[in-house]
Write a structure and sequence with these properties.
Blueprint (H helix, E strand, L loop, with lengths): L2 E2 L4 H4 L8 E3 L2 E3 L31 E2 L7 H12 L8 H8 L9 H11 L11 H10 L2 H16 L8 H37 L4 E6 L2 E6 L8 E5 L7 E7 L4 E3 L1 H4 L5 E2 L15 E2 L4 E4 L1 E8 L5 H5 L7 E2 L3 H35 L6 H15 L3 H19 L2 E3 L3 H5 L5 E4 L1 H5 L5 E7 L2 E4 H7 L9 H12 L4 E2 L13 E2 L2 H11 L4 H6 L3 E5 L7 E7 L12 E7 L1 H4 L3 E5 L6 E3 L2 H16 L3 E10 L8 H10 L4 E10 L6 H10 L3 E5 L4 H11 L11 H10 L15 E8 H4 L4 H7 L2 E7 L3 H13 L4 E5 L5 H6 L2 E5 L4 H6 L2 E3 L5 H41 L7 H11 L1 H6 L25 H30 L4 H4 L15 H30 L20 H18 L1 H7 L7 H4 L1 H21 L4 H5 L2
Parallel strand pairs: 16-28, 16-31, 24-27, 28-30, 29-30, 31-32, 32-33
Antiparallel strand pairs: 1-2, 2-3, 4-14, 5-6, 5-7, 7-13, 8-11, 8-13, 9-10, 9-12, 15-33, 17-18, 17-27, 19-20, 21-22, 22-23, 23-26, 24-25, 26-27
Length: about 1100
C-alpha cells in the first residue's frame, strides 16, 4: 500500500491543519501537528500492570506488587524519551526501513530479530527455595514439626537415660516431612510443566504484511518494522504505531491500567507521551472494535508490557472450590485432634498423674498425645489432591480440553447452566451464501450465479448492483499465503460472515476489478452493538454511469436494524429504484422470516449517495457518517447465509441435559434464526411455539408472592422453552429474572456483550454455577464473569484470554470435561473414606483404652506414625487412578454450598461401619494374642493401670513388655491387612466387586495391588527387622496372626457387599438414605 505524499491535506481540505498525508486514499492527520478540537487524547495517569481473571473464587489472579518508586520512575522515563508517536508516518517508516504497503523483507526481519530478540516476555523465574520451604514447613508438616520437637524433648532431657525410641521417632518424622516435601515439590514442578505445555498449545498469531504479502505468523516472530493488521478480537502482539484506522477502532487497556473503559485509537498525537498517545497500540491490549494497521516499534521485553512486568511478582493462587472443601475437612479433623489431645492432657494432670503415678509417665503421656494427633492427620490428603487434579488435567488434555489452571478442573463438575454462543461454537463457523433475494424476487445461490449478467444496465442490472455492493461492503480478505489455492481452500482474514460473502462474490463476476476501480475512503466495521457495517467510496464508483457528486455509502447488517432507515429499493423486476412502501416492507420482512425459520442468517445490503460536510479523517467526520450514513437508505438486496451446526452439537446438548445441566443459547443473531438452530441442536425440544416476553410476563403475574424455591431442583422449573431478544432483556426486572431463570429451555437472541454479561450474573445470583462457551470478542465479558469460561481454539484472542478452558477439538469434549470434573470429587471422597477408618478411628481407640480404661497400649505411637505416613499412603494414592464407577452424567451437579467433600454419611461409613469393624477386630486380635501367648484374659487388662507390672499373672516386667510389643505388632498387622478389604470396598459406592473388580478392563486398576504390596512390605520391615525392633520397640508377629486377618479383611469386604446389595434392592430404604 503506497503512501501518496504528493497531495497535501490543505489542498484537499483547506480547513485542515498542515502536514497531513493521504495513506492509500484515506485521509489522516500527521501526528506532528493537529487540532485539539479534532482529536481526543488518551490520558494515562498511572502506570501499573494488573492481569486479573474473573471475580469468582477459584481463578488465578496476578496481583500488582508495589516496588520502589525509583524502579517505576526508570520505566516511565524510558518511555517519556520515545518519539515514535510524534513523527510522521513517512519519517517513521524511513527510520525503520519499512513501507506500509509492503512491510519488511525476510532478511531485514531476521536481522531485526537477531538484534532485538524474540517477541516474547521472559517469565519470572520460579522461587524454588521459597516453594520448597513452604512444602517443608507448611500445611500438615507444621504440626508434624511440633511432634518432632516434642519427641526430641522426650528423648532428652525428659527421659533419663535418654530414650533412643523417641529420638528415632523424631528422626522418622523429619524424614517423613522431607520426603513429603520432596514429593510435593516434584509434583509442583510436574504440574507447572503440564500447565505450561497446555498454555503453549494456545494460539498466538497475528496478520502481517511481509514482502507485500498478507500472511499469518506466530506473534513471537514479529520484528521491529513489521506492518501488522489489527481486527476486532485480536490481541495486540507488540507495541506499535497506528498508521491507518477504520475511524472507530477501540482498545481495551484494562490489562495495563486496570480500567474497564475502552480507549479510542487514531493516527494523531497531540504531544502526549508514548504511554498516553492514542496512536500507540500497546502489547497485550485487545482490539474491541474496528480495525487498524500498525508498524511495530518495540518488541519483547522492550515493550510497555515487558518493562512493567518487572514490577510484578509471581501469581497468587486463590483457594479453589475443592481446596475450600479440603480446608474444611482439615479444620474438622484438627478440631477433633485438639479435643482429644486436651482431654488426654487434662485426664493425666487431674487423675492419672495423681492416682496412678506409676502407670503413665510424662513421656508416655506426651507420646500418646502426639500419637493421637498424628493418627488424626490425613497425611496423604494434600498429595492425593494435587495428584488427582494434575492427573485429571492430563486426561482433559488427552480429550482436547485444555484447562488454563487446575482450579477449573473440579469446578466444571459443579456447573448447572451452560450459556453457549451460536456461531463458531454450536455451529461450524463455515458459513456459505445459500439464498439471494430482493424485495420482489428470491433465488438460490446457484440460480443467482447462473442468471448473473455481463452488462451493468441490462435486464438484470439489479443482480449486478447487489454483486457490487457485496464486493465493496466487505471486511474480509484472502490470506496472501494461500492465494494460489482453489477458492474454497483459501485462508481468510476476517469474520465468518464476511468470509462467506467474499467467497460467494469471488466465485462469479469480476470482483478484483471492482475493488481496483474504486477507492475506499472510510469504513466502520461491524460490531455487536450497531449490528451493521459501513463503507464509503469516492464518487468514481461506477464511472461512466453515475456522475453524481459526493460519495457512495454501502451498509450491510441485520435487516431488523436497517429496515427502519430504508426509503427505497432496487427492483429486480423493473431494474430501477422504487419507493419502500409498507407493502414492500412487508415483503422484505416475510423473506427474512422465511429464511430465518430455515436457520439462515439474513444480511441486508443497502446503499446511498452522501456528500459529507466535515473534513475527511476528522473526528467530526466519523460522527457525521455514523449518524447520517445509515439514513435514507436504498435496499440493494438480501443474502441468506447458512452455518451448519457442528455434527456433535445435538449430542452435546443432549448429554448436558442428561447430566442435569441446562443448556441455553446466547447469540447476537436474529430471534427466528437462533430458534431454528436451537431446534436443530436440541436446545428447543418442545413442539409448541416457545414463550415470548409476553407469555413470560403473564406467568410472572400468576406466580405467588414471596421467595421462590431454587431452580436447581428440576421440579421447580418451567418445562417450556423461551425465546427472548435484546429488546426484551432491556425491560426485565429482578422479578422477571426470577421467572426467566426457571425455564428449562432458553434462547437469548440479538444480545449485546453487556446483555450476555447480565444473563450470566442473573443466573449466578440465583444459585447457579454458570459456564459460558464462546469464540468472539463479544463473548469475552461473559467468559470472564462466568464460573467457568470455555473458549473454542479457533476463536478470537480476546475470548481465549478471558476463558478458563479451551476446546481444542470437537465441541462435545466439554462433556468429557464435566465427567472428569465430577470424577475428581468422587475419587477424593474415596481417598478420605479409605483413610479415616484406620488413620484416625482405629488408632484413637488404643489411646482411649489406655488413658481412660488402663489397658496396656494396644498400638504404639511409632506404629501409628507408620500407618498414617506409610502403609496407608500408597494404597490411598492408587484410588486417584480409579475410573468412574458408573455414568457420572446421571448424577445432578454438585451443590458446592451443601454437598461437601466429607459429610455425615462418609463419617458414618468410615467410623461407625468400616472403622468400627476394624477397631473391634484389631483389638480382638490384640486380646487374643495376650490370652493365647501370655495367658492374660481380656477382662484382666481392663483397669489394670499400674498393676500391669512385675508379677502380673506371674510374668516379669521384661516378659510383659515383650508381650505388649508383640500384641501391638499384632494389632498393627491386623489393621494393615484389614485395609485391603477396605480399599476393595471403597472403590465402589453402589456396585458389587463382582460387577466392577480391579482386574477386568472396564475398571482395571493394578495400582491397588501395588499399594497393598507396598503396605505389606512396610509392615514386615517394621515388625521383623531386628534393627527396627531394637530401635522402636517392635517385635516379631507370630505367623498365625499374619494369616488370621486375611479372611477378616474379606469379611469387611463381604459386609460392605451386603450393604451395597441392600442399597441396590431398596434404593429408597433407610440404609440407602444413610449410604455415602
Amino acid at each position: 500500500m503506497a503512501i501518496d505524499t504528493s497531495v497535501s491535506h490543505e489542498e484537499q481540505f483547506p480547513t485542515a491543519q498542515p502536514h497531513s498525508e493521504n495513506v492509500h486514499g484515506i485521509f489522516y492527520h500527521d501526528s506532528s501537528s493537529g487540532d485539539p478540537d479534532i482529536s481526543l487524547p488518551i490520558r494515562f495517569r498511572t502506570v501499573s500492570i494488573q492481569v486479573t481473571e474473573s471475580h469468582h473464587s477459584g481463578k488465578l489472579e496476578d496481583d500488582v506488587v508495589q516496588h520502589s518508586d525509583k524502579l517505576k520512575d526508570d520505566v516511565i522515563n524510558f518511555f517519556d524519551q520515545l518519539t515514535f508517536h510524534n513523527v510522521s508516518v513517512k519519517e517513521l517508516c524511513g527510520m525503520l526501513d519499512t513501507a506500509p504497503d509492503r512491510g519488511l523483507d525476510d532478511i531485514a526481519a531476521a536481522r531485526n530479530i537477531q538484534r532485538d530478540g524474540k517477541n516474547t516476555i521472559a517469565q519470572a523465574k520460579p522461587k524454588y527455595v521459597r516453594r520448597l520451604l513452604g512444602h517443608i514447613f507448611g500445611g500438615f508438616c507444621s504440626i508434624l514439626w511440633v511432634g518432632v520437637i516434642i519427641f526430641f524433648i522426650c528423648w532428652r532431657p525428659l527421659s533419663n537415660p535418654p530414650s533412643p525410641t523417641n529420638l528415632a521417632l523424631a528422626i522418622l518424622l523429619i524424614l517423613n516431612n522431607l520426603t513429603h516435601a520432596a514429593f510435593s515439590a516434584f509434583q509442583d514442578w510436574s504440574t507447572s510443566r503440564i500447565m505450561n505445555s497446555i498454555l503453549d498449545l494456545l494460539p498466538s498469531e497475528c496478520v502481517v504484511i511481509r514482502e507485500g504479502k498478507t500472511i499469518k505468523m506466530p506473534a513471537s516472530e514479529l520484528a521491529v518494522g513489521d506492518i501488522v493488521l489489527l481486527h476486532v478480537g485480536n490481541r495486540v502482539s507488540a507495541d506499535m504505531r497506528l498508521i491507518e484506522t477504520s475511524g472507530d477502532v477501540r482498545f481495551d487497556r484494562a490489562v495495563l491500567t486496570g480500567e474497564s473503559e475502552e480507549i479510542e485509537g487514531n493516527i494523531d498525537s497531540l504531544g502526549e507521551t508514548f504511554l498516553e498517545a492514542p496512536n500507540i497500540a500497546l502489547m497485550g491490549t485487545h482490539v474491541t472494535n474496528g480495525h487498524a494497521k500498525g508498524v511495530v516499534v518495540l518488541t519483547g521485553f522492550r515493550t510497555v508490557m515487558g518493562r512493567i512486568s518487572k514490577l510484578t511478582n509471581s501469581t497468587k493462587i486463590q483457594p479453589t472450590l475443592i481446596q475450600q472443601e479440603i480446608k474444611r475437612f482439615i479444620g474438622i479433623i484438627l478440631l477433633c485432634t485438639i479435643i482429644l489431645a486436651l482431654s488426654i492432657l487434662i485426664v493425666w494432670l487431674a487423675w492419672l498423674h495423681r492416682d496412678h503415678p506409676g502407670f503413665m509417665s510424662l513421656v508416655s503421656m506426651l507420646n500418646n498425645v502426639m500419637g493421637s494427633v498424628i493418627a488424626f492427620i490425613p497425611v496423604g490428603m494434600p498429595v492425593a489432591v494435587t495428584l488427582t487434579l494434575s492427573l485429571v488435567a492430563r486426561r482433559m488434555k488427552a480429550v482436547s480440553v485444555l484447562p488454563k489452571s487446575l482450579s477449573t478442573v473440579e469446578t466444571l463438575g459443579c456447573v448447572t447452566v451452560i450459556c453457549s454462543d451460536k456461531t463458531g461454537t454450536l455451529t461450524q463457523n463455515k458459513m456459505s451464501v445459500v439464498s439471494v433475494g430482493f424485495v420482489d424476487a428470491t433465488y438460490t445461490a446457484e440460480q443467482f450465479r447462473e442468471m448473473f449478467p455481463d452488462d451493468l444496465d441490462g435486464e438484470r442490472a439489479a443482480l449486478r448492483r447487489l454483486h457490487h455492493a457485496a464486493v465493496l461492503c466487505n471486511g474480509a480478505t484472502f490470506d496472501g499465503a494461500t492465494a494460489e489455492l482453489p477458492l474454497e481452500n483459501r485462508g481468510i482474514n476476517g469474520d465468518a460472515t464476511d468470509g462467506a460473502i467474499l467467497r460467494f462474490v469471488e466465485s462469479f463476476g469480476d470482483a478484483p476489478a471492482i475493488r481496483a476501480s474504486n477507492t475506499e475512503v472510510f469504513q466502520i466495521p461491524f460490531n455487536s452493538r450497531n449490528k451493521w457495517m459501513l463503507t464509503m467510496y469516492s464518487s468514481s464508483y461506477l464511472q461512466g454511469v453515475d456522475k453524481d457528486p459526493g460519495s457512495f455509502v454501502f451498509v450491510k447488517g441485520a435487516p431488523d436494524v436497517l429496515i427502519p432507515s430504508c426509503t427505497s429499493y432496487f427492483s429486480a423486476l423493473t431494474n430501477d429504484i422504487q419507493p419502500f412502501t409498507s407493502a414492500a416492507r412487508a415483503k422484505l420482512v416475510a423473506i427474512q422470516e422465511q429464511w430465518s425459520r430455515l436457520g439462515q442468517r439474513v444480511i441486508l445490503l443497502c446503499m446511498r449517495h452522501y456528500t459529507p460536510q466535515a473534513p475527511l479523517g476528522s473526528n467530526d467526520f466519523t460522527v457525521e457518517i455514523t449518524r447520517n450514513g445509515v439514513e435514507s437508505l436504498t435496499v440493494v438486496g438480501l443474502l441468506g447465509l447458512m452455518d451448519p451446526p457442528r455434527p456433535e452439537s445435538a449430542n452435546t446438548v443432549k448429554e448436558c441435559r442428561r447430566a442435569g445441566v441446562r443448556f441455553f443459547m446466547v447469540t447476537g443473531d436474529f430471534g427466528l434464526t437462533a430458534a431454528a438452530i436451537g431446534r436443530q441442536v436440541g436446545i428447543i425440544t418442545t413442539r409448541a411455539e416457545p414463550d415470548s416476553f409476553a407469555e413470560m410476563n403473564q406467568r410472572m403475574s400468576k406466580m405467588p408472592s414471596g421467595p421462590l424455591p431454587s431452580s436447581r431442583d428440576p421440579a421447580n422449573r418451567i418445562q417450556k422453552s423461551l425465546v427472548l431478544e435484546g429488546k426484551d432483556l432491556i425491560m426485565l426486572t429482578e422479578n422477571h429474572w426470577d421467572i426467566v431463570t426457571r425455564y428449562e429451555e432458553i434462547v437469548f437472541a440479538r444480545t449485546t456483550p453487556e446483555q450476555k454479561l447480565s444473563i450470566v450474573n442473573a443466573f449466578q445470583k440465583r444459585d447457579n454455577v454458570v459456564a459460558v462457551t464462546g469464540d468472539g470478542v463479544n463473548d469475552a465479558p461473559a467468559l470472564k464473569a462466568a464460573d467457568v469460561g470455555v473458549a473454542v481454539v479457533s476463536g478470537s484472542d480476546v475470548a481465549i484470554e478471558a476463558s478458563d478452558l479451551v476446546l481444542m477439538g470437537n465441541f462435545n469434549s466439554i462433556i468429557d470435561g464435566i465427567r472428569l470434573g465430577r470424577l475428581v470429587f468422587q475419587n477424593l471422597q474415596k481417598v478420605i473414606t479409605y483413610l479415616l477408618p484406620s488413620g484416625s478411628w482405629s488408632e484413637v481407640w488404643p489411646v482411649i483404652l489406655n488413658v481412660y480404661l488402663g489397658v496396656p497400649l494396644p498400638l504404639s505411637p511409632f506404629l501409628m506414625v507408620i500407618i498414617c505416613c506409610f502403609t496407608d499412603l500408597a494404597p490411598c494414592l492408587s484410588l486417584i487412578m480409579e475410573k468412574e464407577e458408573f455414568d457420572l452424567l446421571t448424577l445432578p451437579p454438585r451443590n458446592h454450598k451443601k454437598d461437601h467433600l466429607i459429610n455425615l454419611k462418609i463419617y458414618g461409613q468410615s467410623y461407625l461401619f468400616i472403622g468400627m469393624m476394624e477397631t473391634i477386630t484389631s483389638h480382638a486380635m490384640f486380646f487374643l494374642y495376650m490370652w493365647k501367648y501370655a495367658g492374660i484374659p481380656a477382662h484382666a487388662l481392663f483397669l489394670a493401670f499400674e498393676k500391669y507390672s512385675h508379677g502380673f499373672y506371674g510374668h516379669t516386667q521384661d516378659e510383659l513388655d515383650h508381650f505388649n510389643a508383640v500384641g501391638q505388632g499384632v494389632c498393627f498387622v491386623t489393621i494393615v491387612i484389614l485395609q485391603w478389604g477396605n480399599i476393595l470396598s471403597v472403590r465402589n459406592k453402589r456396585l458389587s466387586i463382582l460387577q466392577a473388580d480391579p482386574i477386568r478392563k472396564e475398571r482395571r486398576n493394578p495400582w491397588i495391588f501395588v499399594g497393598a504390596v507396598l503396605a505389606f512390605v512396610i509392615a514386615v520391615f517394621v515388625t521383623e527387622v531386628p534393627g527396627m525392633q531394637m530401635l522402636f520397640g517392635t517385635a516379631s508377629v507370630p505367623v498365625e496372626f499374619w494369616v488370621i486377618p486375611l479372611p477378616l479383611a474379606l469379611g469387611i469386604l463381604f459386609m460392605d457387599e451386603i450393604r451395597k446389595l441392600v442399597v441396590r434392592m431398596f434404593p429408597k430404604g433407610p440404609i440407602a438414605k444413610m449410604a455415602w
